[in-house]
Amino acid sequence: MQNTVSNPVPEKNQTGAGVGTVPASVAMLKVIEAWGVDHMYGYPGGSFNSTMNALDIEKERMRYIQIRHEQVGALAAAADAKLTGKIGVTFGSAGPGATNLLTGLYDAREDHAPVLALIGQVPHTNMNYNYFQEFDENPMFADVAAYARLVMTPESLPYIVDKAIREAYKHRGVAVVVIPNDFGYVQIPDELYSSVSPTDQKDRPLPQPTDLEVDAVLEMVKAAKRPVFHVGRGIRDNGAKLVELSKKLQIPITVTGQAKGLIPDDYEGNLGMLNRASSKAADEIFAVSDLVIAIGADFPFANAIYRTHPFKFVQVDVDEAQFGRHHYLDKGVWSDAGDFVDKMLVRSTDAEPSSFFQAAVADMQNWQAYLDHLLDRETSPLEFEQIYREINKIANDDAIYSIDVGDNIINSFRYLKLTPKNKWVISALFASMGSGVPGALAAQLSFPDRQVFHIAGDGAFSMVMQDLITEKKYDLPIINIITSNASLNFIKSEQDDIPMNHSGIFIEDQDFAMIARGMGVEAVTVRASSDLPAAFAKALEVTQAGRPFLIDAKITDKRGIPVEELELKQQDGTWVETVNPSYNANRALTHISSVQEFFAEYDGGELKSLPEIFAEHNVPTDK
Ligand SMILES: CC(=O)OP(=O)(O)O
Questions:
Q1: In this structure, which of 206, 214, 221, 514 has its CB flanked by the most CB atoms within 10 Å?
Q2: pTM for this one?
Q3: How many CA atoms, within 13 angstroms, populate the side-chain half-sphere of residue 354?
Q4: Rg value, the chain, Cα
Q5: Element (H, E) at 224
Q6: In which domain, by residue range, is 170 found?
Q7: Inter-CA distances, 259 with 11, 256, 341, Å
Q8: What pLDDT, in 10s, does the model give residues 323-372?
Q9: What residues does the Thiamine pyrophosphate enzyme N-terminal TPP-binding domain cover (predicted)?
Q10: 460 and 358, same structural domain?
Q11: 495 in the same domain as 455
């Protein structure tokens, strides 16, 4: 009765090469391999040993990446999916191994990343007896997963995993398969996996815009005086076409967090991101726009930014369930972003040169000059800008960036110069602190020949720093840059913006270089900008030799200019810019009465207000 579930004891040294049969767990891995997956992240536990056995059998085809906390594995699988578009795979054993996955799985769900999570379960004969680490796992995953199933027979395991992968792709989300450990050892007929035939995801038919829809949008563009694009990750590799459209229709571009780099940062009409991580130009131009065309964009700050401005709103989205999610619709176009842009190019004629577009470009150039001026300074104690100067100096043109949550999101947006050759991974909607190390692991594993930067604050890094061990174990030559200022500085700024004392945001400073060295990773500490060139030269030397490196950059807790505090209103037919007083209630800036004072507070004497720039470009002030 060797092959029955009632006697699931594994044979030693199973090879998976039995005549016509194979362990169910091996059959499952072969399905996952057939979908083009070559590595998965996890940490073993007793309830997962049948799959660990299969991972040993399949080690030539499936690389097991041993992370040191399941949350890191789940976040890394999500990052794999965000970086490659292909499904990421992670696992955890029953009980705590399963619960530890949740943060990463929610991150995947929120950022529409297809992820398969395999969950260990006690042997089926022990289920429902309150057995060690046993609990009913499916209800817990019901919310995060688009598909969650408990495997009921060994023979169904390869099918259920294949189905789970299809569901994850279809919903661009999480699929969970819970596997009673004993089932994985059972020999099942090998045709149960060999009949699996993955579908090429690129062949998925995408909704197309009709001529009528595109013409209606073009009419709205003609009627608008200050149109703006807001572009998300849905634009994928069509950034160059959007630049062409932006020039042709004279419409400036703003982007979402995940779309950084998809439109070259050096395109003059790319104003960058909105809201707190924004450029001044993006926030200002968006605030005065009378037509927003959102293309493949999800935007978590819609209630703060979209709904507070009176513009007409066009939404172009590949997912018909997303329409109206962020703003009432003047026009919805159910379409792939690239196909929409293609058709807009074909059906439009060149717009007249627009003073509004020129003013948007000038506003961005003025902002860029301000940033360059801050980059060029020398500072001791170290401020954050010079770190970005050094990164830009040594970065390859196809470098990949994993940026953790906090001030580094704002600063990376402002100071890193990216093009579509680069890749960038963040935890955008779930904003999970601790996503930086996992993102870098995923980047270096999926793209072993490319340079990978990981930038994190001390708070975020200390949540996952044990996984420097993983960088070391697999010789992943990641450049880790920790900006440490013993403060949760992003949260400090939020507390500064409301009337409250600082509470709970100061954290113990650590010697992260010493911690890294303790884990076998070479590292240095820097305290002044003059230390940076040598530190980055060492980082290059070590990573080019195939080893990870860490720079612990001790920075001040200075806040970058909070451009989201600027407000634009029309008064007597002209635009007036002020600083929103409600932001300043509890800090030294309460005395500020003009935007010029506000700019000066942040070393921005050369910054111009938007009404000044509008005046220089004769932008009509009518409503
Ligand atoms: C979350 C947070 O405040 O991080 P940082 O200190 O890096 O800004």
A1: 214
A2: 0.94
A3: 21
A4: 26
A5: none
A6: 21-189
A7: 50, 5, 16
A8: 988 888 999 999 999 999 999 999 999 999 999 999 999 999 999 999 99
A9: 27-138
A10: no
A11: yes
Which of 157, 189, 221 is a domain's end point? 189
Q: Please, which pLDDT band fits residue 23 given cuts at 50, 70 and 90?
A: very high
Can you tell me the distance from the alpha carbon of 347 to that of 341, in angstroms, rounded to the nearest whole number? Answer: 10
- Above 80 in pLDDT, residue 590? no
Mean pLDDT over residues 498-514, rounded? 93
10 Å Cβ neighbour count for 203? 6
ipTM: 0.97
Separation between Cα atoms, residue 556 and residue 504, nearest integer Å: 18
The answer to whether residue 323 is domain-embedded is yes
* Nearest-angstrom CA–CA distance, 260 and 411: 12
- Dump pLDDT digits (tens) for 69-90: 999 999 999 999 999 999 999 9
Going by alpha carbons, the residue nearest to atom 1 of ligand 1 is 406
Residues recognised as catalytic: 70, 132-133, 276, 405, 490-491, 494
Same domain, 99 and 182: yes
| Of 360, 332, 330, 354, the residue nearest 254 (C-alpha) | 360
Task: Report the pocket of ligand 1 as residue ranges, CB < 6 Å.
Answer: 405-408, 433, 457, 459-460, 487-491
Q: Is there a single domain that holds both residue 544 and residue 397?
A: yes
| DSSP H/E element including 227 | strand 227-231
From 488, 509, 557, 558, mutation site for ligand 1 pocket: most ligand atoms within 8 A of C-beta: 488
495 found inside a domain: yes
Nearest to 238 by CA among 316, 86, 341: 341
Q: Which of 407, 455, 496 gets mutated to test ligand 1 (max ligand atoms within 8 A of its CB)?
A: 407
Q: What is the CATH number of the domain that holds 474?
A: 3.40.50.970
Closest CA to 521 of 566, 454, 586: 454
Nearest to 502 by CA among 564, 435, 587, 426: 587
Classify burial at 244, counting beta carbons within 10 Å of its beta carbon; exposed 0-12, middle 13-18, buried 19 or more.
middle
Which residue reads 């001791």 in tokens?
380
Report the chain's mean pLDDT, rounded to a whole number. 92
Question: What tokens does 97 get?
Answer: 């191994």
